[in-house]
Structures are given as structure tokens and as C-alpha cells.
């Protein structure tokens, strides 16, 4: 049986640490709770938010609506072959707890995604990625419920239309479904992806090539650049890395011959927004209580009691400046509400 909490403070439920309230909040511990919450929603005709760990959300103001918080968190093996294992994990399980679990079991595939905050249910939404791996590489199916019809669905990997920080859940089905579980396909056979940035160098410091050492190397790299939300509110990369045409890239290259870049295909190239923002001199700069992180210019931080609107003003000033300096339009990765 669900409990509806009114004027619920969400400060501890968003990693930016924005101090706002939601009109109603419903924690869902089992599927029946979700069904009951959806029934309540259909009677109330209010806006709603499906909340995970709140690590990719920026609240611009109080949330005048109903927050539904799936907290179901069971893990079960659903299939196994000599080479692979399929594991179904419920939406409310903490992402990094699951990564640690897989590393302990010697299951390969998601170790490079260690230490990303948030819950399982959000992992397919923006197709989380880091250090050369995207979660789509290990997703078999995504299960959930359409909010309007209260009907369940099961999508294959292909149905999810995954792309860089993109999926059907962030486009066509944005805010229309509740993901209730994700089925991952992990490898029982050793396979590593170590080519991104400083991963190999960090791993060498750890010694042997093992799953635990890869996880620890990734965690150490992340800790050296990214602020801990408990210490400095943030939502990771605030912007997506822009993907630009080869022609636009060649123009950029003429002026900045050391611009880091990642070819996407024969015509398009991804350029790190953090590098652009850094070059434009924003690192460490602040506006009101919002600031650009001193160690990673792609991360905006809450220096204390920042309002969502202060973070948005800073983000807009950066967008305008990058457009005027480089003729590149950068877009937020974070969901702004
Ligand atoms: P929330 O922020 O709660 O929600 C995000 C979106 O998903 C919202 O639109 C929400 O409505 C929707 N959603 C959440 N749960 C469900 C559900 N069950 N059903 C339907 N919709 C749902 N991301 C990366 O990709 N790579 C990184 O390396 C990375 N590093 C980060 C580092 C830090 C320090 C921080 C704070 C964030 C980082 N992120 C990174 C961003 C963030 O951790 C991920 O996007 C994460 O998947 C968000 O999960 P969440 O549970 O917190 O989602
Ligand atoms: N760079 C700078 N200055 C900066 C930041 C970056 O010059 O202030 C340069 C770096 O030197 C490097 C390049 O930009 O050459 C890329 O930097 P980094 O490896 O730190 O990665 P990123 O592109 O800034 C992306 C993801 C991160 C993910 C890392 C590691 C996006 C939007 N961000 O960041 O994801 O952890 O790669 O794979 O794609 C997130 O999504 O929240 C997130 C943290």
C-alpha cells in the first residue's frame, strides 16, 4: 500500500542539492505500488516525474506535481550459456552496487561504467557511458509500463534506439513510461576495453589485469576529476559533447591544432565540450552560487545554496560564449525541470 507524502523536500534526492519541494511524493517498493501510484496519477491529472537517483536532473523551481520513485531492487539470473549470463535487475537498484556485484562474480562488460551515480532504471534512458563503454553494449531487454495505458512492455536492445546519450526513453517515449527492470547480458569470458584516455596508465599502477583492478582504476580516474555530489552538488557532465561535421572540425583545427577529437563516422567528429569550455576560460568561474568545476569544465557545481535558476543562467552564458567563440552549439545533457 502506497503512502502519499505532501510538500516533500527533494534536496537529498537530487545530486545538485537544489533545495525544492514536490507537491506529492510516492515511494514504490514493489510493482503493486507502481500500479497503485499510476491509478492515483490518473485521478489527479497532475504533472509527474519518475525519479531515480536524481543524478541527471536539475530542478529550476519547485515541482508542482507527483514524484513517483521506483525503489524495487531485486537481481536475478534469467539465463546462462557457456560464455554469457543474463541478469535482470529491478529499476531501483543502485547502478554502482550492480557493477560491484558483477565484478565480484567475474562477469565482464560494465566495469568501465564503475562509480556512475544513479539507479538501474535510468541507465538505458540516456544510455550511460564512460571510458569507451556504453550501457547499450550490455543491454538485452528493457521492461516497463506505459504510464497512460498502464500496460507493460518489453523492448529489445534494437527497440530502444540507443545512441550517444540517447534512447527512445529520452525522445519519443520521454516521460511516458516507467522502466521497471533491465536485462543485462554479461560475458563470463575475459574481455576488457582499455583504450580510452588514461585507463591503461592508471591500470599499470594497480598491477595485474583483473576486473577488480580495472574497476579501481576507473574509480581513481573519476575521483581525480569529478566532484563527489555529497561535497559539491553536481549532475556530472552538464553538456553533451557536440558532434560536428568534418568541415566544421577542419576550421576549428586551423586555429587550435591540439583539439581532442573522436571520429563518429566518416563525416562527423565528436569534440569534447569540456575542452571548448576550458579553452574559453570558464574553468573555476562562478555566477552567483553556481560555478564551473575547477578540475573538469564540463561539470557545473552548486557552491552552496544555488537555485536551479542560477545554474541555468551560468549554463546559458556558457552556451552563448561557446557559440560566439567556436561557432558550435552545445546542448545540456542534464534534464532540466
Ligand atoms: P535521474 O536523475 O533520477 O533521472 C534521469 C532521467 O531518467 C529523468 O528524466 C527521469 O525521469 C528518468 N528516469 C529515471 N528512472 C526512470 C525509470 N525507472 N523509468 C523511466 N524513466 C526514468 N552519466 C554518464 O552517462 N556517464 C558518466 O560518466 C556519468 N558520470 C556522472 C558523475 C557524477 C558525479 C554525476 C552526479 C552524474 C554522472 N552521470 C553520468 C549522470 C547520471 O549519473 C546518469 O545519467 C544516471 O544514469 C542517472 O541516473 P538516476 O537514477 O540518478 O536518474
Ligand atoms: N578536457 C579539457 N578540459 C576540461 C575537461 C576536459 O581539456 O576541463 C579535455 C580532456 O583533456 C580530454 C577531453 O577533453 O582530452 C575529454 O575529457 P574527459 O575524458 O574527461 O571526458 P569528457 O568528454 O569531458 C565524457 C563523458 C563523461 C564520461 C567521460 C569518460 C559526456 C558528456 N561526458 O566526458 O560522462 O565519464 O567522458 O568517458 O559524454 C556524464 O555523462 O555525466 C559524464 C561524466
Mean pLDDT value: 96
What is the CATH level 1 assignment of the largest domain? Alpha Beta
Bound molecules: flavin-adenine dinucleotide, uridine-diphosphate-2(N-acetylglucosaminyl) butyric acid
Q: Please give the number of β-strands.
A: 20
N-to-C span: 28 Å
The Cα radius of gyration reads: 20 Å
**CATH architectural arrangement of the largest domain:** 2-Layer Sandwich
The number of helical segments is 7
Structural class: alpha+beta
| Helical content band | 10-25%
Q: Can you offer a commentary on this structure?
A:
The two termini are 28 Å apart. Helix 3 (199-206) packs across helix 4. 25% of the residues lie in helices and 28% in strands. The chain contains seven helices and 20 strands. The chain has 337 residues and is of the alpha+beta class. The strands form six sheets. The chain has a five-stranded antiparallel β-sheet with strand order 6-7-12-10-11, with no helix packed on it. Strands 1-2-5-3 form a four-stranded mixed β-sheet, with helices on one face. A four-stranded antiparallel β-sheet has the order 13-19-18-17, with helices on one face. The mean pLDDT is 96. It has three domains: 4-70, Uridine Diphospho-n-acetylenolpyruvylglucosamine Reductase, domain 2, CATH 3.30.43; 75-222, Uridine Diphospho-n-acetylenolpyruvylglucosamine Reductase, domain 3; 227-336, UDP-N-acetylenolpyruvoylglucosamine reductase, C-terminal domain (Uridine Diphospho-n-acetylenolpyruvylglucosamine Reductase, domain 1, Alpha-Beta Complex). A hairpin with a 6-residue loop joins strand 18 (290-292) and strand 19. It is globular. The protein binds flavin-adenine dinucleotide (FAD) and uridine-diphosphate-2(N-acetylglucosaminyl) butyric acid (EPU). Uridine-diphosphate-2(N-acetylglucosaminyl) butyric acid is lined by residues 130-131, 196-197, 225, 236-237, 240-241, 260, 272, 274-275, 278, 283, 296-298, 333.
Amino acid at each position: 500500500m502506497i503512502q502519499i507524502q505532501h510538500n516533500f523536500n527533494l534536496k537529498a534526492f537530487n545530486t545538485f542539492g537544489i533545495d525544492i519541494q514536490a507537491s506529492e511524493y510516492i515511494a514504490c517498493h514493489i510493482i503493486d505500488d507502481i500500479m497503485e501510484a499510476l491509478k492515483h496519477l490518473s485521478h489527479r491529472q497532475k504533472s509527474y516525474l519518475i525519479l531515480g537517483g536524481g543524478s541527471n536532473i536539475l530542478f529550476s523551481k519547485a515541482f508542482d506535481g507527483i514524484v513517483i520513485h521506483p525503489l524495487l531492487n531485486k537481481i536475478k539470473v534469467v539465463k546462462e550459456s557457456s560464455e554469457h549470463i543474463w541478469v535482470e535487475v529491478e529499476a531501483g537498484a543502485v547502478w554502482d552496487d550492480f557493477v560491484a556485484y558483477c565484478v565480484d562474480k567475474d562477469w565482464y562488460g560494465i566495469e568501465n561504467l564503475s562509480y556512475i551515480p544513479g539507479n538501474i532504471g535510468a541507465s538505458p534512458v540516456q544510455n550511460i557511458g564512460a571510458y569507451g563503454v556504453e550501457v547499450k553494449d550490455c543491454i538485452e531487454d528493457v521492461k516497463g509500463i506505459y504510464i497512460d495505458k498502464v500496460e507493460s512492455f518489453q523492448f529489445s536492445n534494437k527497440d530502444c534506439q540507443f545512441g550517444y546519450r540517447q534512447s527512445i526513453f529520452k525522445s519519443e517515449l520521454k516521460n511516458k513510461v516507467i522502466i521497471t527492470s533491465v536485462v543485462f547480458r554479461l560475458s563470463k569470458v575475459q574481455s576488457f576495453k582499455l583504450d580510452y584516455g588514461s585507463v591503461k596508465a592508471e591500470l599499470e599502477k594497480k598491477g595485474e589485469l583483473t576486473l577488480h583492478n580495472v574497476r579501481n582504476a576507473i574509480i581513481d580516474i573519476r575521483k581525480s576529476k569529478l566532484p563527489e555530489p555529497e561535497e559539491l552538488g553536481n549532475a556530472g557532465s552538464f553538456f553533451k559533447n557536440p558532434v560536428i561535421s568534418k568541415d566544421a572540425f577542419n576550421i576549428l583545427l586551423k586555429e587550435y591544432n591540439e583539439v581532442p577529437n573522436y571520429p563518429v563516422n566518416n563525416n562527423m567528429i565528436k569534440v569534447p565540450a569540456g575542452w571548448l569550455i576550458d579553452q574559453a576560460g570558464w574553468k573555476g568561474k562562478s555566477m552567483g552560487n553556481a560555478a564551473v568545476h575547477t578540475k573538469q569544465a564540463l561539470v557545473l557545481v552548486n557552491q552552496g545554496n544555488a537555485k536551479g535558476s542560477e545554474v541555468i543562467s551560468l549554463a546559458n552564458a556558457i552556451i552563448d560564449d561557446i557559440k560566439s567563440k567556436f561557432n558550435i552549439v552545445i546542448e545540456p545533457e542534464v534534464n532540466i525541470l
